[in-house]
Design goal:
about 200 residues; alpha/beta; Rossmann fold; five-stranded parallel β-sheet
Length: about 200
């Protein structure tokens, strides 16, 4: 029996842009979602081979009582670009393999894959369509400070580590400006209908 893969829509955007809200709206339409960042964290606890490699490269202290200490690891990698590159070179292949396995089980016509770093990691060719979620920088900072109980400086540092929205916009099929209102819901219905109609 031949397997027909669903249309894969990448949802991307910088930290605090509101990607989770957009994903939730797609889920409300019955579209299955794969959240790369969430799965990456789960795999860093579940995938024995990946756990072993992380310990070998970043030390046993990265795990506390058998569980990943994300704050400890973040403190290492966000201060050292080479360390971040090394971690990504281990985690991303594991996530790609996991996503492929997840995709093979889907029976929906369309699925969404959420990752902040689709363009940064040159993954754009893995998707049929890409939606960029944007929001003004001040709003993004405000969201992340409230959500993560972190400092404005820390959020700005992460924003500066990501590709500017202007650059991402040129490579995206659709752009949703996610201000704190409900306008995005109609945008998503329109995008969904356009993609389904064209395929």
């Amino acid at each position: 029996m031949s397997t027909i893969h669903p249309i894969v829509v990448g949802v991307t955007g910088g930290i605090g842009s509101g990607k989770t809200t957009i994903i939730k709206a797609f889920e409300d339409l019955g579209v299955p979602s794969y959240i790369a960042d969430v799965r990456a964290k789960e795999l860093m606890n579940e995938d024995k081979e990946l756990v072993q490699r992380i310990k070998q490269n970043f030390g046993e202290n990265v795990y506390n009582n058998g569980k990943l200490d994300p704050a400890y690891l973040a403190d290492i990698v966000f201060k050292d670009k080479d360390a971040l590159k090394l971690l990504n070179s281990m985690v991303h292949p594991a996530v790609r393999k996991d996503f492929k396995s997840w995709l093979n089980k889907q029976r929906s016509k369309l699925v969404v894959y959420e990752s902040a770093l689709i363009f940064e990691h040159g993954q754009e060719n893995n998707f049929d369509y890409i939606i960029l979620v944007t929001a003004p920088v001040e709003l993004r900072i405000d969201r992340v400070v409230k959500r993560n109980k972190t400092s404005k400086e820390e959020v700005l540092r992460r924003i500066n580590n990501q590709m500017p929205d202007e650059e991402k916009a040129n490579k995206s099929n659709f752009i949703i400006n996610n201000l704190n209102n409900n306008d995005y819901k109609q945008d998503i219905i329109n995008i969904y209908n356009k993609i389904i109609t064209n395929n």
